[in-house]
Amino acid sequence: MKQRAPLTLAAVTAALAAATGLAFLTAPAATPADGTGRAAAARMPVERSVLVCPAPSSSDIAETTYTSLTPGKGGGDGTARLADKDGKAVLDLKEPGKPVAATASGAEAPALTGAAEGVLAPGWTAQQTTRVSAGQARGLLGLACTAPGTDFWFPGVSTAKGRQDYVHLTNPDDTVAEVAVKLHGPDGLLKDKPGTPDPVYDVAPRSTTKVSLAQLAPDSRLADATAHVTARSGRVGASVHVAEDGTGADWLPASAGPADTLVLPGIPADATSVRLVAFAPGEDDADLTVKLSGPTGPINPAGRERLHLKGGMTETLDLGDVTRGEAGSLLLAPADPKKAVPVVAALRVVRGTAAKQELAFVPASTPVGERATVADNRADDKATVLTLTASGADAKVRVTASPGTEGGQGAATEITLKGGTTRALTPPPAPSGGKGPYALTVETLSGGPVHAARTLTLPHDGIPMFTVQAFGDDRSTVSVPRAAEDPSILLR
Questions:
Q1: Is 80 exceeded by the pLDDT of residue 486?
Q2: Is the pLDDT of residue 147 over 60?
Q3: Alpha-carbon span 46 to 78, nearest angstrom
Q4: Structure pTM?
Q5: CA 180 to CA 238: how far, in whole Å?
Q6: CA angle 24, 25, 28 (to 5 degrees)
Q7: Interatomic CA distance for residues 491 and 485, integer angstroms
Q8: What are residue 163's DSSP bridge partners?
Q9: Fewer CB atoms near the end CB (10 Å): N or C, the chain?
């Protein structure tokens, strides 16, 4: 039998890069972790990041701002570009720590795909913010461009009359992606007629496919449901565009999870209606406690402290004006820790009343982790609110504002959070002497997990147009195991 030569770290890294689309800087020799001579795991910066942004709007009067940033400082070579399907660049980032912006008008603004390499890859982020002043799709629609994946959960979708929900599937690669979309309502999975195959959508290379959820359930009008998107081959970015008669429009990002404990951060202080939509993907039922984290700690919403989820069925809980003047975050946890069941969840949030209402969505999010960034913040009076939640133990974070896209000096501050509390920064740190959108970066310095969200409000004609984006760990570094001892670990 022919003997194979041992894999080097470089060979393993190259193989992993080919499989995942990410490459890493060459790791230096790690310091031995113990007296055995075995090298300790090291964390290395990623060398390539991929993002996709769906087409922002079908409205002829839409105005979209794209903003991009890689946090940090330092020189070195790198590129970061978002382009349309024909390769025409829309955003070109030049160096870390300095955001760039571009604008587009009307319904012709395309979906974008792109990659960052070298020094611009670790923590690269991009945001699209669209303002539509009239029509059914009117509102402020915000979305962080996402990394492509293969599995997405969207609690909070609807096929009800007056709602138009479309899943946007964006393929960044050179091969066709095959994607399935399924709906789970209050009675379980919506099934086609017997003998009918499950619908599978082919998403062409470097293009976007829109799927109408109403067409998946032509005989059902579901006020609240959960969409499950899975790529059977290839990978896609997935987001749901929601337009609701009389209440506005926004993007519904995928929920974190499934997990047995969830945090939904950034419910505005003046929310007039908050509805929780949750789903337990497995066969087991879930019993959850529901708490609101505020400035003094978690409280139980009166009469709404518990939620029972039947396995495979979507459930809702009307929380009303739960925040009552103080921004907060919703905490979901198993009622019995010994019977923890993974779930996904999102909030439909409304501000304003009568004809002056506007909606947005707050899905469950992952913690900030080492570092997370949301771009396109505005320094206008009360336009930007940053919400920070320490869901467990006390924690300390650093909040950094980048310069504006038109210059200025960045700013930073450190904040200590008491466990179980939520703090709203109104305003958060902002650049001095600069103009244009800027980015906010949150870093966990010590303590327990921190969840964060940014609310952007740009009122129009008395309507509190707003959108909420959560911060999620930017995964700018990756753990490199002891490859010299067992390189197969990297390929599992």
A1: no
A2: yes
A3: 12
A4: 0.89
A5: 12
A6: 125
A7: 14
A8: 244
A9: N
Distance, in Å, from the CA atom of 456 to the CA atom of 469, rounded to the nearest integer, reads 8
Dump the DSSP string for 118-168. Answer: ETT-TT-EEEEEEEE-SSTT-EEEEEE-B--BSEEEEEEE--STTEEEEEE
Measured between its terminal Cα atoms, the distance across the chain in Å is 24
Span 343-386, pLDDT tens digits: 999 999 999 999 999 999 999 999 999 999 999 999 988 899 99
Beta bridge partners of residue 118, listed in sequence order: 78
Q: Give the total residue count for the chain.
A: 492
SS3 track for 90-128: EEEECCCCCCEEEEEECCCCCCEEEEEEECCCCCCEEEE
For the chain, what percentages of helix, strand and coil (3-state, to nearest 5) are there? 5, 50, 45
Pairwise CA distance, residues 370 & 332, whole Å: 23
E strand intervals along 218-269: 225-233, 237-244, 248-252, 262-267
442 touches 366 (CB < 8 A) = no
What pLDDT, in 10s, does the model give residues 5-23? 333 333 334 334 433 344 3
For the sheet with 314-320, list strands across it: 314-320, 271-279, 344-351, 358-363
pLDDT over 70 at 461, yes or no = yes
Give the C-alpha distances (Å, rounded to integers) separating 491 from 9, 108, 156, 485: 11, 42, 36, 14
- If one counts every other C-beta atom within 10 angstroms of the C-beta of residue 226, the result is 29
- Residues 6 or more apart in contact with residue 360 via CB below 8 angstroms: 250, 349, 351, 466, 467, 468
Q: Which of 181, 180, 170 is nearest to 239 (CA)?
A: 170
